[in-house]
């Protein structure tokens, strides 16, 4: 089961090539066993990273060079997505797996990627 009272924050709105910082904080006083960040995809949501009370941190192989943990905790968890591209634009979920009860409903966090790219202007 999943806890429902969570606060999600996007710390930065990235431009292409930059980093995006995401954090979520559990507002319930439930016993959290696991925190999972997912990317919402049309066919099926995909796990990016997971922090488990017993097994620690795990980064899905598809996201190993893309996502890293910033702050790891069962009530507060932050991640960083590196080298943002247009394909990273979308919505993400932070799921707190709680014991003994909860609801599968959780807020989603959508990331808009700025298409502004850094360029260098040489004045002669």
From TrEMBL:
This is Ig-like domain-containing protein. Pfam families: V-set (PF07686). The keyword Disulfide bond applies. GO terms for biological process: heterotypic cell-cell adhesion; negative regulation of neuroinflammatory response. It is found in: Membrane. Its main location: membrane. Residues 17-94 form the Ig-like domain. Keywords: Disulfide bond, Glycoprotein, Immunoglobulin domain, Membrane, Signal, Transmembrane, Transmembrane helix. One of its GO terms (cellular component) is neuronal cell body. PANTHER family: IG-LIKE DOMAIN-CONTAINING PROTEIN, OX-2 MEMBRANE GLYCOPROTEIN. GO terms for molecular function: cell-cell adhesion mediator activity. It is a single-pass membrane protein. The keyword Disulfide bond applies.
């Amino acid at each position: 089961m999943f806890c429902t009272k969570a606060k999600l924050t996007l710390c930065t709105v990235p431009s292409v090539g930059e980093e995006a910082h995401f954090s979520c904080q559990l507002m319930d006083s439930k016993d959290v066993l696991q925190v999972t960040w997912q990317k919402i995809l049309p066919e099926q949501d995909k796990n990016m990273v997971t922090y488990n009370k017993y097994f620690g941190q795990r980064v899905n192989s598809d996201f190993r060079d893309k996502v890293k943990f910033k702050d790891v905790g069962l009530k507060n968890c932050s991640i960083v997505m590196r080298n943002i591209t247009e394909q990273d634009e979308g919505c993400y979920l932070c799921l707190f797996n709680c014991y003994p009860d909860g609801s599968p409903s959780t807020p989603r966090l959508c990331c808009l990627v700025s298409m502004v790219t850094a360029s260098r202007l040489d004045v002669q």
